[in-house]
Amino acid sequence: MDTTFRRIFQVIDGNKKAVGDGFEVTSPMPGPRIRQLSPFLLIDHIGPMTIAPSDQPLGSPPHPHRGFETVTVMYQGVLAHRDTAGHQGNIGPGDVQWMTAGAGLMHEELYEKEFTRQGGTLEVVQLWVNMPKKDKLAPPNYQDIRSAAIKTLPTPDGKGTIRVIAGSYEGTSGPATTFSPLTMLDVHLAQGGEVTLSLPAAYNVGLYIVKGDVLINGNRPATTKQLVVLGWDSPNTQITATEDSVILVLAGEPIEEPLATYGPFVMNTNQELVQAIADFESGAMGKFEDN
Ligand code: MN
Questions:
Q1: pLDDT per residue over 51-91, tens digit each?
Q2: Read out DSSP for 183-195?
Q3: 197 Cα: distance to centroid of ligand 1 (angstroms)
Q4: What is the Cα–Cα distance from 239 to 216, expressed in whole angstroms?
């Protein structure tokens, strides 16, 4: 076995921001230190935040997307989703929603009604995943991935688990289908647990620390809400948990195409952005009957 480790490029703190009317978000990307980790464009960590009991669910009211996928990984609480392509559903702890915006849609992401009535803790990581140029105008799609559909592997030392959301890891495939080759893993390590992840050397790899304290490659500390960006010189990355930790592993083949972004639209050229705005304003991305 190759005993070298990937070089560590950067350990990036998140910036706080508000999203919609109900989400307290910390986001390490995009930001001044990293624009993208292709094919991954954005990491928004909602909470953990306390939702007081209420009859009025908050969240992110209707807004459009075009040209990429939103991936919502649930840790605590329940969200309700609906979009103008006709998809809707509730997602709770352990579930993943993989939504393809493609040619464009409007969607709404709110606290689920009954969860709002009772109140509780909400914690969610939402990722934006780019689509290759040839697929950007694909029809919208919705993969509603239940926790039970995500296979879980034990780590070799027995002190952790690896949930394979997308791509494959050591022969186990995740349920999500993707437009470009990528691997997404939800790694849970108990204090003292250690794992060496082997991922294709040519992949971009980021470790987002959802919770805990870890040492990367035996010497570089990283903590809650930091993004560790790794290099391409080796397949291997070692993670040692110095306390109970959750790490979202984002690995993928870079999409080597120009990036043009404007708010909720991610295209390849400015002209395509102008078209996206025009299509949104003309109602071509759909509308909800009740808004
Ligand atoms: Mn959205």
A1: 999 999 999 999 999 999 999 999 999 999 999 999 999 99
A2: EEEEEEE-TT-EE
A3: 31
A4: 5
